[in-house]
Amino acid sequence: MSKRQLNRRQRWRIEKIQQERLARAAKKQHQAEADIAHDLEPPQTGLLVAHHGQKVLIEAEDGNRHVCHFRANLLHMVVGDEVIWQAPKSPGDGVVVALAERKTVLKRPDYYGRLKPVAANIDQIFITFAPAPIPSTQLIDRYLVAAELAGITPVLLLNKADLIDPELEEYFAETERMYRHLGYDVLRASATSATGLEALHQRLKGKTSAFVGQSGVGKSSLVNALLPEANLNTQGLSSTSGLGQHTTTTALLFHLPKGGRLIDSPGIREFGLWHIDEHELLAGYPELANLAGECRFRNCTHRHEPGCAWQNAVAEGKVHAERLDNFFRIADTLDSHQRQRYHD
Length: 344
Ligand code: GDP
Ligand code: ZN
Known about the structure:
α2 (about 135-150) packs across α11 (about 320-335). Helices cover about 35% and strands about 20% of the residues. β12 and β13 form a beta hairpin. It is built from twelve helices and 13 strands. By secondary structure, it is α/β, with parallel strands linked by helices. It is flat, with a radius of gyration of 27 Å. The longest helix has about 30 residues, at about 10-40. The protein binds guanosine-5'-diphosphate and zinc ion. Guanosine-5'-diphosphate (GDP) binds near residues 215, 216 and 221. Guanosine-5'-diphosphate binds near residues 160, 191, 216 and 220.
């Protein structure tokens, strides 16, 4: 028997020592947690209004905002989340201890292509378009599909209405007709000439909203027009100063002066269609989804087959040709593997 081998008694002693060590460590940990708990107020509900990676800004029911840290299992909390948190008894950070169930969640892929939440509990998105940059109904449709899949109410917002001259009027009136016919609300506004803002305020009341759309359509201008600058500072920048200088804000939640909440972030503005298949794409095309099972061939691709209900509906003016065209163009950009699965 080698000298290095332990006999039963030695092993028993070492195990005992290890157990005692573990017990002492556990007791210490327990004591530390008890100490922290002792310094914290009872749990209360709150709203996550800004996320800075390591810390979050939580708005209490009384409207005051508190810098909080959070447990590692709450890593994926996002702006708009309802949380349970505890305020400190003496000056310092609070702690977020739990996350409420979400009504809706917007996701986008991270650097590695994995879908990550970017905002929670958004009720409606304003799909913003304008005479300039040149509008694309395909892009509008993409946002509509994404909104429908996320269970968020979409509202179309035609900004820069001041730039619509009589020549352009015909095009935009037709676009508005096309979407209104499908049941979507379409508003007109001008951030720079401050028209249509009152109607916008009314639509924002009592809801949590976000503006999405192509760069340059006037989303920042609209947010600024709806939210006086003083408001922006008190709600956004100054109250996040406790989070440190070198933190980047991913998203912010603002309270609008006439009621309603606005969540704004670059990530939300660009939110789009990720990892969906053609079947899911149909969620944004109710007029096509309604024709399910009406084509002559069960595996109809709706592109060239005789007796195609989709093509017939376009010919009869029941479905807008532009919408069908958009559907095909978007479908062509979807992963071919997923498309195959749908037609099997
Ligand atoms: P964002 O990229 O969607 O946030 O767009 P911005 O708010 O930065 O606006 C892009 C440009 O459009 C800026 O030069 C704005 O001044 C201009 N703009 C925004 N809203 C309006 C509008 O209602 N009418 C006109 N004529 N220009 C606007
Ligand atoms: Zn068909």
